[in-house]
Amino acid sequence: MGNNSQKKQPWSQSIKGPLSFSLLLGLVAGVVGTISSTGGSQNPIRLDIGLVCFGVAFVVSLLIISVLTMAGKENDSELGKGTGVNRSSANPNKKFKD
Question: Where are the domains of the chain?
Answer without folding.
Answer: 31-71
